[in-house]
Amino acid sequence: MIEAPPSLGSESRRLAEAHERAEQRMHRQRDALRPLGWAVILAVAAGAFGGGPHPGLHGKAIGVTLALCAFAGLLGLAIRDRFAYRSIPFQAVVISGMGAAGVALVALQPKGATELAGGAAVWMAVARLPLTLGVALGACITVGLDVAAALAGGSAAAILAASLLAALLGLVAYFLRQARASQDRTEVLLAQLEDARDQQMQAAAVAERGRIASELHDVLAHSLSGAAIQLQGARMLAEREQATEQMRAAIDRAGELVRDGLVNARQAVGALRGEELPGVARLEALVESFRKDMGMEVTLSVEGSARTLPADASLSLYRGAQEALTNVARYAPGAPSSVVLRYDSDRTTLCVENRLPPSPGAGELRGVGGGRGLAGLRERVERAGGGMQAGPTAEGWRVELGVPS
């Protein structure tokens, strides 16, 4: 396995998937080689019974029996899947025992074909242990095999053949290990490259959003602030010139709309700069602001078990309540209104309803707004995957928004 490079944050999804694929690849390789391990046990057993002395319970025969049983048992343990998760010292002891059993078989059966047992131990040492430890242990096992073969009277050719077999198996294990590690490293590097590319794009997007936010603040917010000041002057002029009450009400309403627009502009700028957007958690404060600033008679109730909504869905419901209550204040001032937030099993709805028809004089204020409030709100809700219905009722007007959750 390849360790992830140290980082300031938690491991990314791509890196986690790369490490998971490496783990799965290692398991597949070991599963594919496990039958080969059992075949080695059978081959060593066949070589032991075909050589001399045969396994038995007397003299050297009992030594052959014990060495063969020890090798078979330890190799059977080493090819189990859980063996890879045991501690390194434990694995080293098991593989050393395999090598010792292989050396013993070569010493006890100089004319047998038992060199494969020592070669299998060399393979396991290089494939499973840390590389330096595995190579050192494999070299010790190989030297042990050569010494055992020499003491048992083996020819130089036989000793060389045993050495070459152990070296060949060690090299094959090393190349398989390096190939898997190289593939693992490649996938980790690709995942890191993709993460770095995403971070670069995100940084560029944040910088662009910051630039747009500055432009909005300099142009829109400043313009609205100037409009608010001008409307205050117009209000004072209307009082001095003894303008009609209807004219003063229109100027007051326009001032309120400009102030609301200024607040919304600042919220939009804050959103571009990464600040938290308003959502259903702020509905109570929104309703309270309409009670206090507009003198509206409005209630808020929540039905069902509250839960966290996606940011765009939560913002859509908040803007829906804001737009609907603004329309009540504009077209039906003084009408008792209710805001109901309902959490269903797979949907969250917001209903704003006023229970009196529009006041007779309210029609003259219809031109104060932009006329696109509900249409824009519908588009916002649809982008969040929801829908909106708005229309008259027997008692007044009703706006209902629903988003999936």
Explained architecture:
Strands 1-2-3-5-4 form a five-stranded mixed beta sheet, with helices on one face. Strand 2 and strand 3 (347-354) form a beta hairpin. The chain has helices at 13-50, 60-78, 88-108, 115-128, 131-151, 156-240, 245-272, 283-294, 311-331, 373-383, and strands at residues 298-303, 337-343, 347-354, 387-392, 397-404. It folds into two domains: 13-197, no CATH class; 278-405, Histidine kinase-like ATPase, C-terminal domain (Heat Shock Protein 90), CATH 3.30.565.10. With 405 residues, the protein is of the alpha+beta class.
Task: State the main characteristics.
alpha+beta; 405 residues; Heat Shock Protein 90; rod-shaped; 10 helices; disordered N terminus
Q: What would you say about this model in short?
A:
The protein has helices spanning 13-50, 60-78, 88-108, 115-128, 131-151, 156-240, 245-272, 283-294, 311-331, 373-383; strands at residues 298-303, 337-343, 347-354, 387-392, 397-404. With 405 residues, it is of the alpha+beta class.
List the helices and strands and how they pair.
Elements: H1 13-50, H2 60-78, H3 88-108, H4 115-128, H5 131-151, H6 156-240, H7 245-272, H8 283-294, E1 298-303, H9 311-331, E2 337-343, E3 347-354, H10 373-383, E4 387-392, E5 397-404
Helix pairs in contact: 1-2, 1-4, 1-6, 2-3, 3-4, 3-5, 4-5, 4-6, 5-6, 6-7, 8-9, 9-10
